[in-house]
Amino acid sequence: MTGVGSPTPPAALLEVRGLRVVFDGFAAIDGLDFTVEEGELRFLIGPNGAGKTTLIDVVTGLTKPAAGSVRFGGRELVGRREHHIVRLGVGRTFQTATVFEELTVVENLDLADSFRLPLRSLLRRRRGVSDAVASALEAADLTALADKPAGVLSHGQRQWLEIGMLLVQRPKLLLLDEPVAGMSRSERERTGELLHRIASTHTVVVVEHDMEFLRRYARKVTVMHQGHVLREGSVAEVQEDPRVREVYLGRAKGKAVT
Amino acid sequence: MGALANQLPIGLSIAAVLLLIALGLTFTFGQMGVINMAHGEFIMAGAYTAFLLQGVTSQSFLIALPVAFAVAGLMGLLLEWSLIRRFYGRPLDTLLLTWGVSLVLQQLARDLFGAPNVQVTAPGWLVGGVDVLGLRLPYNRVFIIGLAVVCVVGVWLYLTRLPAGRRMRAVVQNRELAAYSGIATGRVDRFTFLLGSGLAGVAGVALTLVGPVGPSLGTFYIVDAFLVVVAGGLGQLRGAVLAAVALGFLNGYLEFWTDASLAKVLVFVAIIAFLQVRPQGMFVLKGRALV
Amino acid sequence: MTWGRISLVVCVVLLALAPLTLSPFRLGLLAKYLCFAIVAVGIALAWGQGGMLTLGQGVFFGLGGYAMAMYLKLEEAGSAGLPDFMVWSGVEELPALWKPFGNPVFALAAVVLVPGLVAFLLGLLVFRQRVRGAYFAILSQALAAAFVILLVGQQGLTGGTNGMTNFTGFFGLDLTDPNGQRAVYAIAALVLGVLFLVAKLLVRSRFGRLLVAVRDGEDRVRFLGYDPALVKTITFTVSAVMAGLAGALFVPVVGIISPAMLGIVPSLELLVGVAVGGRFVLAGAIAGAIAVNYAKTLFSEDFAEGWLYLQGGLFVLVLVFAPKGLAGVVESVRERFGRKPVEVTA
Amino acid sequence: MLSVSGVDAAYGRARVLFGVGLEVPAGSLVCVMGRNGVGKTTLLKTVMGTLTPTAGRITFDGRDITRLATHQRVRAGMAYVPQGHVSFPQLTVWENLQVTLEATAHREPAAVDEALDVFPALRQLLKRPAGLLSGGQRQQLAIARALITRPRLLLLDEPTEGIQPSVIDEIEAAIERLHREAGLTVLLVEQYLDFALRLADSFVVMDAGEVVRAGAAEELHDEEVRRMLAV
Amino acid sequence: VDEPGGGAGASGDEIKVGILHSLSGTMAISEVTVRDAELLAVEEINAKGGVLGKKLVPVTEDGASDWPTFAEKAQKLISQDKVATVFGGWTSASRKAMLPVFERNKALLWYPVQYEGLESSPYIFYTGATTNQQIVPALDYLAAQGKKKMFLVGSDYVFPRTANKIIKAYAAAKGIEVLGEEYTPLGHTEYSTLVNKIADAKPDAVFNTLNGDSNVAFFKQLRGSGITPQTTPVVSVSVAEEEVKGIGPENVAGHLVAWNYYQTTTTPANDAFVKAFKAKYGADKVTSDPMEAGYNAVYLWAEAVKKAGTTEVEAVRKAAGGITIEAPEGTTTIDGDNQHVAKTARIGLVQADGQIKEVWSSPGPIKPDPYLRSYDWAGGLS
Ligand SMILES: Nc1ncnc2c1ncn2[C@@H]1O[C@H](COP(=O)(O)OP(=O)(O)OP(=O)(O)O)[C@@H](O)[C@H]1O
Ligand SMILES: Nc1ncnc2c1ncn2[C@@H]1O[C@H](COP(=O)(O)OP(=O)(O)OP(=O)(O)O)[C@@H](O)[C@H]1O
Ligand SMILES: NC(N)=O
Ligand SMILES: [Mg+2]
Ligand SMILES: [Mg+2]
Q1: Transmembrane region positions (chain B) (predicted)?
Q2: B230 in a domain, yes or no?
Q3: Which of B284, B285, B288, B290 has the highest number of chain A CBs within 10 A, making it the mutation to test binding with A?
Q4: Residue A256 has pLDDT above 70, yes or no
């Protein structure tokens, strides 16, 4: 447990305490404690159905927990509505990318950029492209498709657009739900580089199943299982943990690298 | 006080009518997401079927039930096959489309049967009534309540127990995937529409016992029918049943205490208020996906 | 000049020439179509851009219309008198609700504020709870039904089924005089023009894009930091205000306002024009509203019993073959002959 | 077994596939690769009949299926696992499986058990509506559903997406077993090179809606192919 | 030039007349039959050589059950078709909508349906009954039958509400108890609660001013409740032969209606009218009071034109007072003061075959009194 031992613990940006989420009697998250410190790049892994997405859902206000608290920069998030949470500086992507198909790529990005504008300025027309949008276009490699409606994007392109939207949103905390799923190897690499760059200035939580990706980019990893934290530590520590191998990695190929 | 108690069976009677007219929508609206404004005209078709059949045999009225099911069902099938199938995934467009169809059907009825109402004579065994709680409950109401119960049970069995019902739900939820699963989606759609519309036809026969039979018949019931489904929760049979019962009693008592006009307005207010608490109706199927 | 500009100029010129060429009767009809076109602009905003299929637009049309009618009735009755319908409804004293409507400023404000406020409150209640899609459509339809029942039931206050009729003046204009009628026409045309521009600016603004986003993915919009309920409520309110203004103009144009104009069927009929013209394009919606209402006049003159077939059939045909309406047809024709087809490859 | 030749396909007026040709011999496992947006999914959808090609021909077992309805292709022995965790959200897991079984020609209940053996985690979830499952759970369900039809040709569109490593291993094992033992023919779209490498007999690389390279699995090590897949 | 009525509609050897009823929408049910009767009258008059030697040419328009449309179409008939007069309307709402149009254009409307009174426009002739020719006689009849307790049921709009006001004033003056007064929206079809209220109140009679389709639902649902015509007769003022057919005679048989004309009314003119109507429109067709009033309207106008020697509106109006015809309902005379007609009141009993048997009639035509000025109990009404 790296964070705990450090001499001057950095301020916790996200603090989840005693979280419990119940769906029709089934506890998807049960007694979860989870802390992310300012400036961290945290990976969140765990078996399918462990509750990773549900955790993000709770933090971002999509799901109401049965018990527990979620504090962000000292403020309680539970009970706030989704857009308030965004305005406090929490941004997320979705496991299945959702973009506005009828709007062009640029318009999608621009909307993500404009939420801080007062209503009055929203009533004006967009003129040109802001720097943030331009650099997100660049980062997501969508410049060529900038004026195409997002509906024509392929699965992977949507994923990129979604990351781009998150970037222009400039949140303090980014929650990425399987950002590289469905991306080709080189694209995963590019995402990884991007992630690294973002992480130098933001706090990031990434949910991923891609172990190769994890090994390359992760510093600290939290493993969830059946709604609680099974293990937290460095990539190596986690990979060696027999319980993690049992429930998540699998016996044979836990370490296999290609 | 006595009158208050004998509003009970009346609430039930109103509920039964609401349920009958709304039941078919459980399929076409609830399952398939088609806001079928022509549903009322299918009810009308059922009523005219009863009209045409009367006097053919001594039990024409009973025979009219399955025949009306077939007639309205076939009309629904035809509508699905010719138009609706181009509109899946565009529920609001189906509303306008079927409204256009309903106008045409109304005018057609006017041209075929004339603008004035026609009369369907109730069979002898439905004349008269039975005393319940000091109130005389007409046999025709008892019949409608019974018919509603039978239809609900049938629909429930179909939806939950029969492969065909399962198949229908699969197609509605994900047409493409259903095809990938080997389901002949087109056939399922048509059959679903046939069922929903057929139920409207059955309702039409029953309504000849208590209401007018004319070209505008459908317009009297359509708004209420949709309100039942909305209050109940889309695609939820138990929701529809509960909503019909709740609205039936609400209607009955509010009208008893105030008057029919005010009762209608108050029911609407109650539904808005209710949707504040339960925005998706009484029963909602939860989902995680973003809309 | 683009095609859009050219057709706009042509339309403006035609509308300006109408008073010189049409008989007062025909001009009155055109003015009526313009009123419906104003409603159509609002519907195109709420439905085409915002995805809110409002089947109760007649309610707001009616609120605006009644507010205006109340003023005109009081104006006519003079300081002492009662409006004619109250006399035969046995009302002896002017109801309190009516009193402020004697003031023209109040009445004009009410034309905008009453529909706007009702829509705003209703929108807030409904959209906050995420009632949408078909639910919203059906609720708005029930609203229209309930509103009509309420109006009809309050005969002494509203004139019941009869509504209010027999207006002779409108802010100093003599409605029985052709010149007065021309002036009213000009006002209607002007209001339509202004509201069209307002709507156009709104659609082109970021808010307009946001509205489309809300239409296509309301829940996703929340995670961009916006409150979709607010976006929808604002739009719904704007469209209601437009309907209210249209209703207020309808009163001097047609000379009557009654519940028959506000129920389910008229509310749906307002949609027909928008669907035919093309709900996604404001100008299309306007053209559609005018064309459909003109067709209605024409057909009921020569082919009364067939009107329902025609109206129903027209609706079906448009939805099947031109789901984006005439505007969509124009668009695709222009694409076919103008622009190159797009080949999407990465 | 499956032969695609000269296929053009488009979404509306946007053309996506340009003269795609592909052979999937009986008993083989062919992997389609390519960057995001090159048309892999589109190709599979065209093979399944969701999209009708504007030109070209698709045959299955020598029979021309270019105009056949999707469900008939499924009955003929093709199964497809679409990309992106799709399910019937409001049916329970059990109903998802059951409804598929009922639409098969064979209707053998044992097929459900066999599929569940591949994904034992699903057994605890049988009563849960599929829409409430996690992404990975749904993906497992999707593959299980395809297996229930007992296909002769299985089309998989990025089947490992969102699935935990241990289950990926199981999927791999299952595909391998079906492929080796039961002679199942597989057309696989996969971004994970190592996964593809271990399984595939041959591969096809697509770019911008065209097949730019096809060959035996060994050639995948080829630097040229790697470059083609790079952005 | 834009002189609407002036020698109006009369060009060459033709006179145009407007016929304006709902041919579509909810009111089409009723109004189409009136149009048919009016067209029959036009045809008959033409067959007898027309008016002033000119043929009548009907111009038909659809009011579409929509009041503003009535106003619009009236304007169109006047200013575009330049008709000599218009026959039209059914609901009071449509009449109120058209009234300003006719007054503004100084054109003539002939309105053929019983209505609530309290109106007298110089440009409208009312050929249906006003309240003292239908409602008041019906009340007199009930009172004579010893009915002391009444329940009022009506559609929620002007005519029923005004009618009930009159009934309550009458009841108050004559010691009749009104046990309940209920309104339902037009098109309402659920009457179980209302029937329960009636059963609960146990009135001696029900006075029914429901309109249109609601009557069907009301009578069907009343029948099952055990309330019989023997114990509690219902008197209806908007149920005529056409409606009886739709309700089903077995559901209304034994109840009462109040009109000025029935198909069974025995006058030579009626024999001819019924025969001609069936010949033109089919043997299964029935005739009813509003149809007859519409039919009369055409004849009354034609007579007034003959007397005036022109179709010019002011001349026709002046000539109209005192015009008398032998109508199917008997002698009818235009009252020059209020432009209503004197009519005989008739109470009818609905028969099992759907026909209506007259059980009482006023001794002779009753002078129209739309404001009930001659009834002292009605003092507070207008
Ligand atoms: N609304 C809901 N109702 C019922 N069960 C739910 C609901 N949402 C999630 N679950 C269940 O909660 C558990 C956790 O789901 P979650 O999506 O958080 O998993 P995950 O860790 O993100 O998995 P994956 O890696 O597969 O995406 C799963 O078993 C899922 O089926
Ligand atoms: N529904 C659609 N309408 C229009 N264009 C589309 C549609 N779906 C996909 N496209 C376009 O077709 C092209 C191919 O898309 P496809 O989904 O086949 O790509 P893919 O190779 O499967 O990509 P990925 O690896 O991201 O899944 C893309 O450029 C995309 O923009
Ligand atoms: N005049 C009537 N019956 O409305
Ligand atoms: Mg997840
Ligand atoms: Mg793909």
Answers
A1: 6-27, 34-53, 59-79, 142-159, 191-213, 225-250, 262-278
A2: yes
A3: B288
A4: no
